[in-house]
Amino acid sequence: MALLELDNLSVNYGAVQAVRDVSLTVEEGETVTLIGANGAGKTTTLRAISRMVRASEGHVRFAGRDLARLPPDEAVRLGIAQSPEGRQVLARQTVEDNLLLGAYTRRNAAEIRADLERQYRRFPRLRERRTQLAGTLSGGEQQMLAIARALMSRPKLLLLDEPSLGLAPIIVLEIFRIIQELSGAGVTMLLVEQNARLAMQNSHRTYVMEAGQIMFSGMSAEMVNDERVIQAYLGG
Amino acid sequence: MDFLQTYGFLIVTMLQQGLLGLSLYFPLMAGQLSLASPGFYALGGYIAAIMLTSPAFAGWRDALGGWIFPLTWVLAALASALLGVIVGVPALRLRGIYLALATIAFVQILQVVSLNLDITGGAVGLFGIPQAFGFEDRWQYIWIFLPLTVLVLLFARQLERSRVGRALRAIREDELAADAVGISPTRYKVLAFVIGAALAGIVGAMSAPFLNTWNARQGTFDASIAFLAYTLIGGSRSLWGPLLGGALLSSLPELLRGLADWRLVINGLVLVVASLYLPQGIVGALSKLRRPVPPKRPPVAPPPALPLGDAP
Amino acid sequence: MSAPVLQIRGLTRRFGGLIAVNNVSFEVQEGEIFGLIGPNGAGKTTLFNLMTGLTPPSSGTLLYHGADITAQPPHTIAEKGIARTFQNIRLFRSLSALENIKIARHARTRAGLLAGVFGRDRAEERTVDERAWALLDLVGLSSKAGQEAQNFSYGDQRRLEIARALATDPQVLLLDEPAAGMNTSEKGELTAFIRRVQQEFRLTVLVIEHHVPLVMKLCDRVAVLNFGELIAVGDPASVQRDPKVIEAYLGGS
Amino acid sequence: ADKVATPVPIGIGVAQTSNTALLGQEQVIGARFAEKYINARGGINGTPIKLVFQDTGGDEAGAINAFQNLITKDKVVGIVGPTLSQQAFSADPIADRAKVPVLGPSNTAKGIPQIGAFIARVSAPVAVVAPNAIKQALKLDPKIKKVAVLYAQNDAFSVSETGTFQDTAKAQGLTVATVQKFLTTDTDFTTQVTAVLNENVDLVIVSGLANDGGNLVKQLRQLGYKGSIIGGNGLNTSNIFPVCQQYCDGIIIAQAYSPAQPSANNQLFVKEYTAQYKKAPPQFAAQAFTGVQVMVDALRILDRKKKLADWELSDLRVALNTQILAGKYNTPLGAISFDKEGELNQAAFYVAQIKMKDAKTGTFVFLK
Amino acid sequence: MTDLLQNLINGLAIGSVYAIFALGYTLVFSILGIINFAHGAVFTLGAYFTYTLVVGQFENNGLIKGFNLFPAGSPFHGTPWAFALAALIGATLSGLVAVLIERLAFRPMRARGADPLLALVSSLGVALVIVNLIQILVGAESYNFPPDIYGDLKPALILHVGGKLIVVRTVQVIIFAVSMLLLLILGYVIGRTRTGKALRAVAENPGTASLLGISVSRFIVITFFLSGFLGGLAGTLVSTAFSVAGPYFGVTYGLKGLAVIVLGGLGSIPGAVVGGLVIGLAEAFVPSQYSAYREAVAFALLFVMLLLRPQGLLGQRLIQKV
Ligand SMILES: Nc1ncnc2c1ncn2[C@@H]1O[C@H](COP(=O)(O)OP(=O)(O)OP(=O)(O)O)[C@@H](O)[C@H]1O
Ligand SMILES: Nc1ncnc2c1ncn2[C@@H]1O[C@H](COP(=O)(O)OP(=O)(O)OP(=O)(O)O)[C@@H](O)[C@H]1O
Ligand SMILES: CC(C)C[C@H](N)C(=O)O
Ligand SMILES: [Mg+2]
Ligand SMILES: [Mg+2]
């Protein structure tokens, strides 16, 4: 059984239909990439999974359970974490408090400490900025914080919305190294990326989205060589 | 005639409160929630009341006859505008609720001062104010409040369409971005604030004869909050909102008169229910019914290449 | 390439104990496309903020066409001809795309309160309208002219923000990560677009960007910041080979 | 043109809501009682009266609305109201211009009857009532030398009252050691009280309303003030008993009304009122009653000349006004009449001292 | 010297009344960013609830006059502990009312994404309803607690220092102590615990908070309960000092309370206490010849504070990074 299953999902913003009839699955332990042009509906899809927007039609099933009426905080308790578009760090709290709040649903203080340490090792810049208010971080620093914070909940399913956005090349490489590492550790991921080549190189399968719909999908390894993908997303 | 006699005061009050609601709208166009209007309203009223009752102005009154009334309006507007600049320049560095609170403080301070001055009649206030243009009945005040309302609406509409109106909207949306595209936030915020202040001052000057008396209970914190309610319940995004809100909310306790003791309970419930079900205000809810018209392109054919602009 | 448009002299900005920009000096020549790169938190955005008056410098001066414009308010600087986009997009969110652009004509128009109220601004308004539509055409958003900016997707918002900056008739355009959130083909289009705009409007462009291929392809010269300090300036190829840059920024390869 | 309705409508425009309702509440009771009392005695020569209540709230606009409703919609022959002088300054001119007689039941500020020919009052101005209290206090304790004066600065009537108190005190050769201000909305008076205590005064004069005044007295006593206390008109209500409880004991209050007033009229009034409400009528109730009674008495005379039902309403109003000003009335306030401006001529004023039976119940004991 | 001391005592006494009112007021602000004008009404209600429990009936006016809810000898009267019990029940009831208010008057608004300022209007409506209901039920007059609710405590401590008197009222000491105690408890919970961090996250951005697994609606309910509880308790305490001064009793604190919480720093719990004390002291030190202007002091302070340091004495600066 797939860990995550979207079944004919549609989402409306007022009169605008941002996502139309999307079906998609992510198997346990799998990393799946979702690519598409600006405005294709990728972010909206992720937000529907984390319950930040309501589906107007269709279902989101997580580990077999329909998330239809679940508030977003319950989704986190079930093990879904998201590094959202626009980063959404808590501007008035310190970097460290942001990270600790990422582990809000967890109880074991020692484990949380250890994970905090792990994030600092991954992103030394965050350790340097521990006591700085998150709102004053540079764009890229905030992006690191958003990703690290999502990891703090030890999710079963990690939703990453353009994790490499605004990051220096050296950090982008680090992010994909982390994705590899998590994948190795069995974390299931749904990854939205504009850096399509890197994303596909680091994922099992890829879906391509256009105008709110899934156009086609396939194994990432094959998709990298797909004419349609090269044409539209890899810059020919 | 009886209808006008009974409800004339109410009708004019609706206009008057609507105008005061509008006085909040101008700063709000620039996103500034100022609740200072009651202060300027009180000031305008005092200026009129003093000019119309104080022996010191007896000479003016004799010389000017009916013209003394327009003069009180003008002076009230000028004084309010001046005070508006003095208060506005420092206060408008604040945003949102902080500005609202600072302006409430201003209103309170002004009230305490007026309670303690001799010229304002202390707590008793000023009374025996002569009637504007010899009006006998309250409803006749419609002859001054209605034209003012029409003028203000026209003014506001034209303002919204203009370059200055755009600048105000830009500041409302994002002050910093507005600054970065060349709009001086301070200048336009103060401008909008001063327009609101002058309007409230004029309304005060017109209201002093209308109410027959003027005292420190005119223009208080309660009024600040009432005006805020007008704006929000009416709809803060359209100039019709505050006007409508002011007219409706100020008439509500009167319409509920029949309920005797219970009328304020119902009045309270109406406020709650309106806040809940009209999140964009009455006008906001109405305008939802209309689809916005997409902007029309000016008829000229678009030039193939881009013009280089009119600046060097 | 002629006289320097911008001369940055020893600009420094501290935030508490942190030195975000540390004694940075360089010049930007008229008509060039100048890249600004560096690790996250290196001070690039802060430098833009210093140049546009959003943040006053702790020390140092900024010359524009030889005149000192250090710490002038943002609107004055915009009026003088320096326009920018923001790393965290800052559009007038609940206004239409068209309005967003018309607003940016502010500094290039005159009509005051009374002229507006009495309708003496017709001719001016007409040109504002024409210009705004033309710019929407340029960024391909005319069909969405009436939509609220906040409902635009990320990429469209970026384009709109560039159009808004252009509407101020700038001589210098500062772009803070314009290609963020765009896919590779879109980045390619953006590169072409920036070039075209630069030529048509005879602009000097400064661009902050993390996507190295884009920087290399687009920029005439590149400056590299690290921990607030300028560690390299030069043509793209030589900067890319600089070991300091590789270590701090590019990583491995 | 309108005829006079039967039962004859008389308007009561007082504060039934807002902060001011605390006072208006008593006026409503007094007026209601008057209606019952008068109709039980045959009304106006057999024609019953009907009181029409319109709430004025506590503000000026509310008073105008109430008056306007009474005048044109309810077509009353005359109005008793409003509660506050400030409201009177706003609403009375409306009635005056409409030629409707108004009797102020509690407006004590200077200038009320002068608003117009149709405006009169049954509440004596402070300047007349207040000095009696000081004289009485001196009678009780001739050693009084130093006085502290406290007043609510946001209440118009307290402000004018304190002026009178201060002038009288000086005229009686007393030293005003300190003047302290407070607000009717205040609840803590420690600052004022300590200032008073530190001046070692023998007399404290308080002008305020029931809540604040009562609290002030309570705190004065709690903190050890032992001297005499004079309360102003605002404290002249049994509503202060629950506020200052046993500490109310001994407050001297000048009265425009006394249940002990010996006239037969008053004694009957007191008897029936007490039977119904289980307590002696307070001043505001008695004054409201008086207002209604004066209207009715005047109407009786007019009715004898020409049956009320045959009058044009507007003519009756004018005639009523003339009659009110011309007549002499035996009321709970004693024998009263009006001067030509409408100012009250009241024969006797009283000074009472509060005696508390227990924490809740007390009485106003009238001093000779 | 003695004047100074007395002013100090007076200032702290008045200030702690402001503070105790402001605690619940600022709590709601801290989390929802709204000013809840109904807080004053809840404060009043708390006093009436406790009064009803302790005394049982209302006399002169109103619909339920004379109706005896707790006939003489009610368990809530007679010993200080019985009174404390009544006060706690009164506070709990107020807390529940606050939760109800949140449910009916605020939550639906949030769900509709309304302008948070509308909450001001809605809460004003709630206040109007409560105040007028009280008046209809029990009349506009004031009620006073029986004098012995604190047992045999003397009403005041009067010291003679250098020929002058110094007065310390017992109730004031109680109020001061309670507000300090509440400050410590709240300060600890909000500043130090995981719950506190989550609360601050909700306050800053509910959307993001829920993305982190924080149940926003539960926190809001808790906050309202606490705010109502504190408000009700404050109402009871303050009214034992002065009397339940009619239906408008608490509402009149609303405005001064605003000055207090802004001065201390909007949304800051210690700020509410510090702000209260500062304003109380400032008022106490106004020389008596200027006492007419005392009412302006709080607002003058507020105005100046906003201009110099909008975040208030203890508030956090709002930072904006471009
Ligand atoms: N809050 C909103 N209200 C109205 N429309 C919206 C809203 N958010 C997104 N949309 C619209 O929904 C569509 C899908 O947007 P979405 O953000 O999901 O796209 P995306 O694929 O993530 O794009 P990008 O790559 O630019 O982030 C777009 O057309 C966008 O304009
Ligand atoms: N207002 C502020 N207060 C404190 N520190 C700040 C403030 N603004 C910026 N900083 C710090 O200054 C440093 C430089 O920030 P800046 O935004 O200029 O970086 P950047 O080079 O643009 O990075 P990125 O590529 O991630 O956008 C960062 O470490 C940031 O945390
Ligand atoms: C009810 C009274 C206290 C009113 C007061 N006597 C006045 O004239 O305003
Ligand atoms: Mg997206
Ligand atoms: Mg940056």
Automatic annotation (TrEMBL), chain A:
Which InterPro entries does the record match to this protein?
AAA+_ATPase, ABC_branched_ATPase_LivF/BraG, ABC_transporter-like_ATP-bd, ABC_transporter-like_CS, BCAA_Transport_ATP-bd_LivF, P-loop_NTPase
UniProtKB keywords: Amino-acid transport, ATP-binding, Nucleotide-binding, Transport
An individual GO BP term: L-amino acid transport
Entry superkingdom:
Bacteria
Q: Which CDD domains match?
A: ABC_TM1139_LivF_branched
User: Which Pfam family name is an example for this entry?
Assistant: ABC_tran
Q: Which residues form the ABC transporter domain?
A: 4-236
What molecular functions are annotated in GO for this chain?
ATP binding; ATP hydrolysis activity; branched-chain amino acid transmembrane transporter activity
Which Gene3D superfamilies does this one have? P-loop containing nucleotide triphosphate hydrolases
* PANTHER family per the UniProt record, alphabetical: BRANCHED-CHAIN AMINO ACID TRANSPORT SYSTEM,ATP-BINDING PROTEIN (PTHR43820:SF3), HIGH-AFFINITY BRANCHED-CHAIN AMINO ACID TRANSPORT ATP-BINDING PROTEIN LIVF (PTHR43820)
Q: Which family does it belong to?
A: Belongs to the ABC transporter superfamily.
Specify the protein name: ABC transporter ATP-binding protein
TrEMBL record, chain B:
The record's section on InterPro entries has:
ABC_transp_permease, LivM-like
GO CC, any one term: plasma membrane
Work out whether the entry's keyword set contains Transferase: no
Q: Which keywords does UniProt give here?
A: Cell membrane, Membrane, Transmembrane, Transmembrane helix
Renumbered residue ranges of the record's region Disordered: 293-312
Compartments where found: Cell membrane
Residues in a coiled coil are none
* GO MF entries: branched-chain amino acid transmembrane transporter activity
Q: Which parts pass through the membrane?
A: 6-28, 40-60, 66-89, 96-119, 139-156, 190-211, 223-252, 264-286
User: What is the membrane topology listed in the Swiss-Prot or TrEMBL record?
Assistant: Multi-pass membrane protein
Return the Pro residues bias intervals. Answer: 295-306
In which broad location class does this protein mainly occur, judging by the first location in its UniProt entry?
Answer: membrane
Keyword hit for Transmembrane helix: yes
User: What's the name of the protein?
Assistant: Branched-chain amino acid ABC transporter permease
UniProtKB/TrEMBL annotation, chain C:
Which keywords label this protein? ATP-binding, Nucleotide-binding, Transport
* Domain of life per record: Bacteria
- Transmembrane recorded as keyword: no
Q: Which InterPro entries match?
A: AAA+_ATPase, ABC_AA/LPS_Transport, ABC_transporter-like_ATP-bd, ABC_transporter-like_CS, BCA_ABC_TP_C, P-loop_NTPase
Task: Give the GO cellular component terms, alphabetically.
Answer: plasma membrane
List the PROSITE patterns hit by this protein, alphabetically: ABC_TRANSPORTER_1, ABC_TRANSPORTER_2
Q: Which residues form the ABC transporter domain?
A: 6-252
Q: Does the keyword RNA-binding apply?
A: no
Q: Which GO terms describe its molecular function?
A: ATP binding; ATP hydrolysis activity
Q: What is the name listed in the Swiss-Prot or TrEMBL entry for this protein?
A: ABC transporter ATP-binding protein
From TrEMBL, chain E:
Give GO BP annotations, semicolon-separated: D-alanine transmembrane transport; L-alanine transport; L-isoleucine import across plasma membrane
Q: Which InterPro entries match?
A: ABC_transp_permease, BCAA_transport_permease
Against Pfam families, the record matches this protein to: BPD_transp_2 (PF02653)
Q: Where in the cell is it found?
A: Cell membrane
The way it spans or sits in the membrane comes to: Multi-pass membrane protein
Keywords, alphabetical: Amino-acid transport, Cell inner membrane, Cell membrane, Membrane, Transmembrane, Transmembrane helix, Transport
The organism's place on the tree of life at top rank: Bacteria
Keyword check for Heme: no
- The principal localisation class reads membrane
Question: Which stretch is the leader sequence?
Answer: none
- Annotated TM spans: 12-34, 41-58, 78-105, 117-138, 166-190, 219-245, 257-280, 292-308
Question: Cellular component GO terms, alphabetically?
Answer: plasma membrane
Cite the GO molecular-function annotations of the record: L-isoleucine transmembrane transporter activity; L-leucine transmembrane transporter activity; L-phenylalanine transmembrane transporter activity; L-valine transmembrane transporter activity
Which PANTHER family does the entry link to?
A: BRANCHED-CHAIN AMINO ACID TRANSPORT SYSTEM PERMEASE PROTEIN LIVH, HIGH-AFFINITY BRANCHED-CHAIN AMINO ACID TRANSPORT SYSTEM PERMEASE PROTEIN LIVH
Q: Which family does it belong to?
A: Belongs to the binding-protein-dependent transport system permease family. LivHM subfamily.
Protein name in UniProt? Branched-chain amino acid ABC transporter permease
**Which organism is this protein's natural source?**
Deinococcus ruber
